[in-house]
Amino acid sequence: MRDVMLSGLRVGALGLGCMNLTTSYGPVDRDQALAVLRDAFDGGVRFWDTADVYALGDNERLLGEFLATVPRDEVVLATKFGGVRDPETGRPLGVRGDPAYVREACEASLRRLGTDHIDLYYQHLPDPAVPIEETVGAMAELVDEGKVRCIGLSNLGTDQLRAAHGEHPIAAVQNEWNLFYRKVESALVPACAELGIAFVPYSPLGRGVLTGATITTTELDAEDERRMFPRFAPQHARHNAALLGPVHRLAEAHGATPAQIALAWLVQRSEVHGLTVVPIPGTRHPARVKENVAALDLRLGQDDLDAVEGIAGQVSGERLPELPPELRHFMPEIV
Fold it and tell me: For a surface tag, which of 107, 122, 160, 198 has the fewest beta carbons within 10 Å of its beta carbon?
């Protein structure tokens, strides 16, 4: 796998999103999850992304278990803080970005991960009660202490990014970006290109929709969080699956899968927009790791890109679930 540079960190052109290796998409076998990490490591995927809220810290513990078996410096490890959940039920309670919490959260993540440093530490969500400069200032202290190598931000807007970058250099922004969701291209992506900040798209396969499968709430596990997302309601899922006709045709023409086409399209956004783009697809199946990596060998021509250009504008259903007013800042619609 070819390497790209992310603010001094050498990462592969494709990372691994680890969220669904625990409980977010329903129960998963721990041995199978460890097998995914092993296949990723052996296949050269060494940029791994987690967060302290994933499975109430168990996702970080899973990575810590595996990291104990390999040289730590061969994995570029990213995790996130900020989202606060009920420790018993996992229900979102809000967001914290105050300096005391930044330090508390970092120390807790280091313990769960079994490491003395985090390569890329993200604020998962901006805290509406704390200026982002104040949060980033606290993160910068962790950099000075060697506990964090680089700072990232997630689920934020352009003005917040500029304010944060003025406080301390931001290495990466992590927001959703895929063939179904392209609003970030209007302002946030150009700002990252201008400031020399990498973009790490989460949900590059649209939470599974862009794999070509028709996924509806009626077939999802009772514990699968996607049951809350409007786009998985049957009427929206069927409509959106039909939009993938051009993707299926490109997959057939290139001897590829729909997922590989979606990933190749996203990787090539780096050329279109002039910035480093490192997608982080997740999977629970070891074989999918190799499939995703193979997308890096695909080259889509201009006719291919034109064929899928209009898909995002036709998608049915809201991207995010409706939450009570007091929790809406937990999953913001920020571009």
Answer: 107
Domain 3-330 -> CATH class: alpha beta
Catalytic residues: 54
Is the pLDDT reported for residue 334 higher than 80?
A: no
Q: What average pLDDT does range 61-66 have in this prediction?
A: 98
pTM: 0.96
Q: Which two tokens stand for residue 186?
A: 């209007």
Beta bridge partners of 94: 84
pLDDT exceeds 80 at position 182:
yes
Q: Where are the domains of the chain?
A: 3-330
